[in-house]
Amino acid sequence: MQAQMHERDSRDMRKWNGHMNDAGRSYLKEFGGAMAAYAVVLFAAIAVVNANRTAPWRYIVVVLPVIPLCFALLAFLRFFRRMDEFQRRIQLEALAFSFGATMLITATYTFLEAAGAPRLPMISVVPVMSVLWGIGATFAIRRYQE
Amino acid sequence: MKNQLRALRAERGWSQADLAERLSVSRQTVNAVEVGKYDPSLPLAFKIAWVFGLPIETIFQPDLPVEASAPGQA
Fold it and tell me: Under an 8 A CB cutoff, do A86 and B16 touch?
């Protein structure tokens, strides 16, 4: 009986992993919409600025893609609040790990730059942080499993 | 904290997914509570008790020394 329960549980686990819950679904919709808008505004802004390379207002146009990114951030924050308490804890631990590890890595690279390593663009921090977030989530989930 | 979630669930023939749906939480959350890796919040613990129709202390038992009695008890 106990073994049967275990077997069914692990089957349910796979089913759960294969399905998004409601919070995840609405997040993907909201986040996807914001990113689609971002792509449109980004390409439009690039085209406009390329055609007006000396206009003083180009500084305003190039930062316009940040507006749809703000909506992506709002979508993420809403997702965070819609998660259940345990999922929120997992994500919080993952974010705490990526926050600290990103600081360590950026500090380390700053020292390397001082010694002559090539300067990297600021945006390289974003993929580093994202990957560390994923790693953090993997470890956090593992800690709460049997 | 110890809990009787797995046994209670088995009595009723519910899968973790069934219980998760009744509690409006993820299956992963039910599993973490069940294996004792995650202690639910007070509201979630009360909801679990309500779903099973049992007092909360029938389902969850703190890891206290057996001989210890609460300060409030004579």
Answer: no
